[in-house]
Amino acid sequence: MDKIKIMLIEDHNVFRQGMKRLIELEENMTVVAEAGSCREALQKVSDQVDIVLLDIGLPDGDGLDLCAKIRTLYPGIRYIALTTYDDAIFIKKAMERCISGFVPKYAFFEEIRWAILMTHKGGTYLYPGLGVDKLINLSDPGLSEAELKILQLLAAGKNQKEIAESLFMSLSTFRRRLNGICSKLKVGTVEELITAAAKKGLIK
């Protein structure tokens, strides 16, 4: 099995080392490089990296500017921000520039794991509740590949536990994602969600 190769860019050593240990416990992921600053990151990044997991606020520069510089060298790398930012306008601009995923530092590792899997497949990931409601008012966010998959499985009659297991997530994580989909489609129940999704042509 080819592992997803990850670079960690984070100036807090304890947080970075803790994240590294969690990632290395995953059989399909590995940390191939790590850095504590923009300068060190530019020295250590290589074409071996699939995903960069980084803090936006680094001691010697802006994480978004760093991503832009790395992209000129290795355009195939994708980026996930582990951040304390929750401003919707900032998140929107960051995702328009280069970031494929936003996860707050207080999130459970399961959410980070899901973000890595989604972005590696070419999708995007926005942590449920991280400015989502405000972001919807700025533009039409659409639904991610994972969210469409959840809708399809719900429409097929699968229950929440079955869907969570098939997508390798806990029931609590699934319910957070389901609430996020309901917010995007402005509904309150699963029944309303399926009806709204069908009207929009998202499911058949």
Q: Give the second-level CATH assignment, the architecture of the largest domain.
A: 3-Layer(aba) Sandwich
- Tell me about the largest β-sheet: 6 strands, parallel
Strand order of the largest sheet: 2-1-3-6-7-8
The Cα radius of gyration reads 17 Å
Number of domains: 2
Average residue pLDDT: 84
Low-pLDDT runs of 5+ residues are: 132-141
Topology order in helix (H) and strand (E) letters: EHEHEEEHEHEHEHHHHH
Say which CATH homologous superfamily of the largest domain is assigned.
Response regulator
Work out the helicity level: 40-55%
Strand tally is 8
Q: What fraction strand?
A: 15-25%
Oligomeric description of these chains: single chain
